[in-house]
Each structure stands twice: as structure tokens, then as C-alpha cells.
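dude i think i finally got it to work??
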Amino acid sequence: MKNEPFQFYVTQMTIRLTAAETAGAYSLVEMRHTAGVGPALHVHPRSPESFFVIEGTYTFYRGEETVEARPGMAVTIPAGVPHRYVSGPQGGHILVIMPPGLEEYFWIIAGRLKHGPVPKAEEFALAAQLGQDFINGEGHWGGHGAPVEGEK
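look at this
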């Protein structure tokens, strides 16, 4: 799992540090995005999340604020603040310091995606168990994935 790239929808991820290695303080994940992708609006109720842009541009929606981030910029999201981001027209490359254990969500869902779409309701339930509460499913990773029942 650690230091081995894997696909999460159209994003390549590499887990660099697990929660176990940081005494449960955080996880560190490297992400390479294609253009125009990112997670649906969500919150991390227990921990902040921070991003460092290596390549490309990203638009972060943090509460009521919009932040345009370029290479060399860092963006932090306090615990409990609704947020999402979208990679720019050239895609991008970021490091994410995320709530501890959330790396498991990405790893598990990536494994399931190898066998077909994962219903958002199931994906979002797992995310909630691991520290990420989705507010809605709009634009989730570029619209990829099986819809929630009743969603188009």
C-alpha cells in the first residue's frame, strides 16, 4: 500500500505516510490529477486538512471563500469547514496532509473500483467511518462513480 501508486477514479495516488507512522496524527498522500477533478463538498469533523501544490493550479472552495492555488502555495482547511477543490485545465500534482486513517478510504475504494463502479452511498458511508463526511455528491471526482439511489 505505502509508496505504491494506485488509481482512485482518474487520479493517481500514492500514500507516503500512514496514520500508524504518525502516531495517529495525520496521513500524507501524494495525488496527480487530470484536469477538472476533485472530491464533492465534504467536511472533516475531527481534523484539519492541508494541501501543497507542486504542479498545476487548483481552485479550493473553503466555506464561503474561493482560493486559487499555484505551485508553491499551501492551503489549509480547519476541521469542520465544508470544502472541495478542482484541478485546473492542465491537471495538477499535490501533497495532502489529511486526517488520520483517511488513506484507508482511498485505498479500499480504489480496490473496489477495479471491479466496477462503487455506489456513492456505499463510498460515502465508508468515508464517514474514516473521518470524511460528504455533504453532497456533486462533481465527485469529475462525476465518476455510481450514483446514489435517486441521483442522476
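Confidence is low (pLDDT under 50) at residues 145-152.
im so relieved honestly
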